[in-house]
């Protein structure tokens, strides 16, 4: 199964250099939160709107990481579906190996306000 994570492009670029992504969400690390927030495909737009619009409006470049859930588990990292905002979201309990990311999509809010990636 495929899951997704919205990231600041600068955070992803730094992770590529080390081989591990360790950001839970904007301005919070994996160590601070305990897991990396992720979304299913139908949750990305809502997540972006609720949590990432202010950063994008402030000029932060965003990207969407396309993550192979099976690769994450094969690397020994646990993924749990947990409740949040009346839905279940995938949470990655450990660092994300960059080779578990199958695609990196540039992302931004369009003039119409829709999140595109």
TrEMBL record:
Gene3D superfamilies for this protein: Protein of unknown function DUF952
A Pfam family it matches: DUF952
PANTHER family xref list: BLR1139 PROTEIN, DUF952 DOMAIN-CONTAINING PROTEIN
Name of the protein in question: DUF952 domain-containing protein
